[in-house]
Amino acid sequence: PTECFLSQPEEKQETTTVKAKRRKKKKISDILQKSAPKPGVPADLQNLLSQHFAGNRSVIEIEELKLSDSCFLPANDLTHSFSSYLKEICPKWAKLRRNHKEKKSVVMLVICSSALRSLELIKSMTTFKGDCRVLKLFAKHIKIKEQMNMLEKGVFHIGVGTPGRVKALVEQDGLCLSSTKYMILDWNWRDQKLRRMMDIPEV
């Protein structure tokens, strides 16, 4: 009986130490929660590109991938709404929209991390877009063939979608980027796990 009695508290001790260890494990969301949102700058994208291609490109090839400062527009300083930001960076939108007649392409491409975020941005650009046509470029409930058919048959001015679906459309020749004038990255928005689009490894 004494032995049995002694073995019980030992078991309890083991379980409590395991539980304590589990609690101490830090989640990525805890770390990200502490980092304050700040506007994305051209250097962020440049660093990301060079890190991504560092393993399979030579130094000269990486140098060729570098975009000049003239390629970048001013980033949203976090005081703008999405529509007011678009109006600031694209003051001649009405003219661009009128002149765009090409099928299988868009003038403005907005890339964000999820389908839900895409819908949110489409709603928030109402005052900017006016009567121009917007195409949803994400996988949720929409087949890639449907999107390819829509791009072939009609003229769209703005495309809003996720990196995976945009990449698939470009690779399958469903989306042509030759007439795209603006590409906007939804850099600062965070999902439920507090990850930005650029924190997701697949992206």
Automatic annotation (TrEMBL):
<dbReference type="Pfam" id="PF14617">
    <property type="entry name" value="CMS1"/>
</dbReference>
<dbReference type="GO" id="GO:0005634">
    <property type="term" value="C:nucleus"/>
</dbReference>
<dbReference type="GO" id="GO:0030686">
    <property type="term" value="C:90S preribosome"/>
</dbReference>
<feature type="region of interest" description="Disordered">
    <location>
        <begin position="1"/>
        <end position="39"/>
    </location>
</feature>
<dbReference type="InterPro" id="IPR032704">
    <property type="entry name" value="Cms1"/>
</dbReference>
<dbReference type="InterPro" id="IPR027417">
    <property type="entry name" value="P-loop_NTPase"/>
</dbReference>
<protein>
    <submittedName>
        <fullName>CMS1 protein</fullName>
    </submittedName>
</protein>
